From TrEMBL:
<feature type="transmembrane region" description="Helical">
    <location>
        <begin position="189"/>
        <end position="210"/>
    </location>
</feature>
<dbReference type="InterPro" id="IPR000515">
    <property type="entry name" value="MetI-like"/>
</dbReference>
<keyword id="KW-0813">Transport</keyword>
<comment type="similarity">
    <text>Belongs to the binding-protein-dependent transport system permease family.</text>
</comment>
<protein>
    <submittedName>
        <fullName>Amino acid ABC transporter permease</fullName>
    </submittedName>
</protein>
<feature type="transmembrane region" description="Helical">
    <location>
        <begin position="135"/>
        <end position="157"/>
    </location>
</feature>
<feature type="transmembrane region" description="Helical">
    <location>
        <begin position="84"/>
        <end position="105"/>
    </location>
</feature>
<dbReference type="GO" id="GO:0043190">
    <property type="term" value="C:ATP-binding cassette (ABC) transporter complex"/>
</dbReference>
<keyword id="KW-1133">Transmembrane helix</keyword>
<feature type="transmembrane region" description="Helical">
    <location>
        <begin position="57"/>
        <end position="78"/>
    </location>
</feature>
<dbReference type="InterPro" id="IPR010065">
    <property type="entry name" value="AA_ABC_transptr_permease_3TM"/>
</dbReference>
<keyword id="KW-0029">Amino-acid transport</keyword>
<feature type="transmembrane region" description="Helical">
    <location>
        <begin position="22"/>
        <end position="45"/>
    </location>
</feature>
<feature type="domain" description="ABC transmembrane type-1">
    <location>
        <begin position="22"/>
        <end position="210"/>
    </location>
</feature>
<dbReference type="Pfam" id="PF00528">
    <property type="entry name" value="BPD_transp_1"/>
</dbReference>
<dbReference type="InterPro" id="IPR043429">
    <property type="entry name" value="ArtM/GltK/GlnP/TcyL/YhdX-like"/>
</dbReference>
<keyword id="KW-0812">Transmembrane</keyword>
Length: 248
């Protein structure tokens, strides 16, 4: 087939539908990321403990790191319904499937990050009379999060891409929208190229966002987010100073 037979105008005609699919993919991924962060942190703490929960966490992590996203969503959407009579929506099934998988990956990221925090920080907190829970929340966890942040960004990109396998349950994300358009236009090369471009652009945007977050956690803070926060802080200070001047 010659290049001239490809109808590239289909991308312009259907870009709203494709972007709607990306929005659905991002919505599923964002909710799943929040759940996975919480579950991953709990699993990491279990993995670092010395009780039997350590082996439970290890078994969970090793099982779900090896399960493909397609199998996971089939288990959730069809298997749970057949076994327990619980019917999830396609959105709920997608969130649960991603959370099961990526909480296992994030658990290992948090485990290594927590282990990388110098023990001297905990000892310093204890010397100041801080409780262990406060030391963890105020000292150890923020340091571990800074270490884990680049890998969390990579996991989020992976989540967005893995939503493409959820076409099997009818989730209207980018690939499902593309399949529907291909069935009526018979232009798979054009439309799947557009879908790939959307995923690539989304990956660049997510990478930029997490790099900005990473820069804002440095000392002193740097990057666009840190500059925005500093400008807002300066504006607030100037506003308070102006009010004080008027009052006096």
């Amino acid at each position: 087939m010659a290049m001239t037979t490809y109808d590239w105008s289909l991308i312009g005609d259907n870009w709203r539908l494709l972007l709607d699919g990306l929005v659905v993919a991002l919505q599923v991924s964002i909710v799943a990321l929040v759940i996975s962060l919480v579950a991953g942190l709990l699993l990491a703490l279990m993995r670092l403990s010395k009780g039997p929960q350590r082996w439970i966490a290890a078994a969970y992590i090793n099982i779900f790191r090896g399960v493909p996203a397609l199998v996971s969503v089939i288990w959730v959407y069809f298997g749970v319904s057949l076994a327990f009579g619980i019917n999830f929506t396609v959105f709920q099934a997608g969130v649960i499937a991603l959370s099961l998988l990526y909480s296992a990956f994030l658990a290992e990221i948090f485990r290594s990050s927590l282990s990388a925090v110098p023990a001297a920080l905990t000892e310093a907190g204890q010397a100041l009379g801080m409780r262990r829970s406060r030391i963890f929340v105020s000292v150890v966890l923020p340091q571990a999060t800074k270490i884990a942040l680049p890998n969390i960004g990579s996991m989020f990109i992976g989540m967005v891409k893995d939503t493409s396998t959820f076409t099997v349950i009818g989730l209207l994300e980018v690939v499902r929208v593309t399949q529907n358009l291909v069935s009526t236009t018979f232009q798979p090369f054009v439309l799947y190229t557009a879908a790939a471009a959307i995923y690539v652009l989304a990956a660049f945007a997510i990478d930029f966002l997490f790099r900005a977050l990473e820069s804002s956690t440095t000392s002193p803070p740097a990057g666009s987010i840190a500059r925005l926060l500093r400008s807002r802080e300066r504006a607030r200070i100037e506003e308070i100073a102006a009010r004080h001047t008027e009052a006096s």
